[in-house]
Amino acid sequence: MSGLLVLIPIALLLGLGALATFLWALRSGQYEDLKGAGERILQDDPQDHARR
Amino acid sequence: MTAELAAHGLDAADFAAPVEAQEAADTLLALSVAAADGCRSLEFAVPDAYCAACITTIEDALTPLPQVRSARVNLTSRRVRVTFRSGQGSVLDLPRAIRASGYRTHVLDPAADGSRDPALAELIRAMAVAGFAAANIMLFSVSVWAGADAPTRNLFHWVSALIALPAIAYAGRPFFRSAAAALRAGRTNMDVPIAIGVTLATGLSLYETITSGEHAYFDASTMLLFFLLVGRTLDHLTQRRARSALSDLARLLPRRATLVDPDGSLRQVAIDEIVAGSRLLVRPGERVPVDCRITEGEGTIDTALVNGESTPSRVGPGTQLAAGTINLSSSLRVEAVRPATESFLARMTELMHAAEHTRTRYRRIADRASALYAPAVHLTAFVTFLGWMLLGAGWHTALTNAVAVLIITCPCALGLAVPMVQATAAGRLFRNGIMMRDGAALERAAAVTDVVFDKTGTLTRGAPALDEQPLDPAVLRIAASLAAHSTHALARGLAAAAYGVVPLDGPVVEYAGQGVEAVIASGTWRLGSRAFCGLPAEDAGSAGSRVYLARDGHLVAEFTLRDGLRDDASSAIRRLEEDRLRVAILSGDAPAAVAAVATELNVADFAARQSPADKLGRLAAIDGAGRKAMMVGDGINDAPALRGAYASMAPSSASDIGRGAADFVFTNERLESVPFTIELAHRAHRLVLENFGIAIAYNAIALPLAVTGQVTPFIAAIAMSGSSFLVVANAMRLNLGRDLVARRAASRVDGASR
């Protein structure tokens, strides 16, 4: 029983954390360009660009 | 696939008029929105961007400009957002830089933009909250069902209540609001039983929790909200995708015109400032801004979008011009006949509004079902309550069982099944190059019995293409290379006819309305009208459909271009007839031209010289006979018919107003989109009915259990998620079957992205 008193808040806090992260990601535009984000990985970094 | 959309959707209309002229610097500034640090930002559509290299090219073209603070390409929406300091440099450099990097672009009007959508954001947030609550409460519920002893169960119920109450208050708002609005208006909708069910279940569970009762339904009410929000969000996404794709297609209409002052000086004015009698100048390539009469100048006018006439017509002093036609050849001085608000376009808009009633009369399947469903559910719950009371079970048991009935019958299938099928259908159509406006359009398309086609731009390509004729490939190549330097419709048709163009090693000059001249090693080449190539004027009959090629003043070749049928026109019509649909052709064009097309396609039912009102009358006659017509058309003159028909479809090359009026817009250039859409609509309709069947079967099993008080929260949870999964899986079957193979008309793309 006492174990539960610790575990339940932890479980809930972790869940809340996930929810907050999702809402933050939504608000900060992480889902605006899913396709572009995938393609941008293929780009050179700006400094690589300059060195060539 | 969206590249194709854009490639075909934009070029036909956009490149007919010089794009630079439409984008006066003040128009751009007016469309920009204020950003941080006194900067302003603009959004441009870049329909051809599809890869990592495109991102780099466009961003690298913009970033070095002194006025640009940041430029970021969004590959999903195919747009680039540019933040710039308005004081420095010209704002016109922005679109120029994008075009110079090889991409077509046009600025987007933030006011007309469908992509910023607060309602969708609210739905997604509500869905996230409901999902979080449902998952966590389910963890506690599983332990309760596994047989937790009373103190633990009480604790878990309290924790569940703590999560559920705020979550329901937040995530349930879309339903509560809509239900309240419906009740205030004295109607019921789907949201009324949802709101009542959720509220009662939560209230009862709270009472159970406080009195240390055995059963709490917090899991059921949050899960219900979650499933319903998934359905609602899907529904919204379907509509939004079509809306933003269509707003990308929307081209900026001419907002300004060139006014000739009495002293002969020229001045740019807003279209609203034009009054009857204003004297205007219409330059070659420009759209005629208002209905007017020519006072000076002769030339040719492209009226295809207005009356469906396929060949450009010759005009001279005294000819009346309708707003929206395109001046192809020389500068015209005109006198406005009416102000813009009374123009041809405005009259068409009025006709469209008048024709609207078929749409407003239509009620969506889910709404019709819920009109039957809601009273039945409430009656059953009430009877359950009364029955248990009469049996003397006490109000607590009676209420518990009544609430169980409400939860079990809560219209999950209605809330999830219909949008799920429609979202799947929209996705399937989208992949095949067809935009669907909303779910209601799909439901209407399933009931269609007649298909009425417009001719020009619908059955035909709407753009002239080279007639089959024996030609020296080398001559054709050089003609196409010259033609690639012009935006004239005939030139684009010619450029598309050759397999690739060659760079010309010399200066190339386009003379507006006349032709293109190139001075290269092999001589001075001219491509254009007879007069431009130094030939004597000929009969006026073939105006606009022939192009001549001359070297050093000597005729080398002449090309005949014709607005031919789409490649799959006859197979599309055969397929429609196989599906037992009646096919008819209504056109504004001349009888001979319409008859020729009808004979070639083997369609017996056709009519020529149809005015917009004639077309509407014909649709009304079909409607009066108890049949449902789908109109397929593209022109401004088709817009009232597109809106008045039971369902409608337009190619992406259609006029703005035509696209705006249609339920479906196909961007794949294939007429087989029409049978494909109708067949998919039929299958979607069958799946919706099947899903209703699943929901009814599920209720037939679960409802007696609920009425007799056998339903525990555990059974409710299993039944609810089980039926939802069945319904979703059933909807997914819509993805089976053969796709339309979207053929890439590559030649049209290279003509544009030079």
* Mean pLDDT reading of chain B: 79
Helix percentage range of chain A: over 70%
- What's the helix-strand series of chain A? HHH
Strand percent estimate of chain A: under 5%
Could you describe the 3D structure shown?
The complex is a heterodimer of chains A (about 50) and B (about 750). Chain A has 3 helices and no strands. Chain A is mainly α and about 50 residues long. Chain A has one domain (about 1-50). The longest helix of chain A has 26 residues, at about 1-25. Chain A starts with a helix and ends with a helix. With about 750 residues, chain B is of the alpha+beta class. Among the domains of chain B are: about 1-115, Alpha-Beta Plaits (2-Layer Sandwich), CATH 3.30.70; about 255-290 and about 290-335, Distorted Sandwich (Calcium-transporting ATPase, cytoplasmic transduction domain A); about 465-560, Calcium-transporting ATPase, cytoplasmic domain N. The relative contact order of chain B is 0.11. Classes of the chains: A mainly alpha (about 50), B alpha+beta (about 750). The interface of A and B includes residues 18, 33 and 41 of A.
Give me some keywords for this one.
heterodimer; A: 52 residues; mainly alpha; 3 helices; elongated; B: 754 residues; alpha+beta; Alpha-Beta Plaits; Calcium-transporting ATPase, cytoplasmic transduction domain A; Calcium-transporting ATPase, cytoplasmic domain N; seven-stranded mixed β-sheet; six-stranded antiparallel β-sheet; 28 helices; 27 strands; disordered N terminus
Secondary structure blueprint with pairings:
The complex is a heterodimer of chains A (52) and B (754).
Chain A lengths: L1 H26 L6 H7 L5 H6 L1
Chain B lengths: L1 H13 L4 H4 L2 H7 L1 E2 L4 E7 L6 H11 L5 E7 L4 E7 L7 H8 L5 E2 L10 H28 L4 H22 L1 H12 L6 H20 L7 H32 L6 E5 L5 E5 L8 E4 L9 E5 L2 E4 L1 H4 L5 E3 L4 E2 L4 E2 L4 E5 L7 H11 L2 H5 L3 H26 L3 H16 L2 H20 L2 E3 L2 H7 L4 E4 L1 H5 L5 E2 L6 H11 L5 H9 L10 E4 L3 E6 L2 E6 L17 E6 L2 E9 L6 H10 L3 E5 L4 H11 L4 E2 L4 H13 L4 E4 L6 H6 L2 E5 L4 H6 L2 E3 L6 H35 L5 H20 L13 H7 L2
Parallel strand pairs in B: 16-23, 16-25, 23-24, 25-26, 26-27
Antiparallel strand pairs in B: 1-2, 2-4, 2-5, 3-4, 6-7, 6-8, 8-14, 9-12, 9-14, 10-11, 10-13, 15-27, 17-22, 18-19, 19-20, 20-21, 21-22
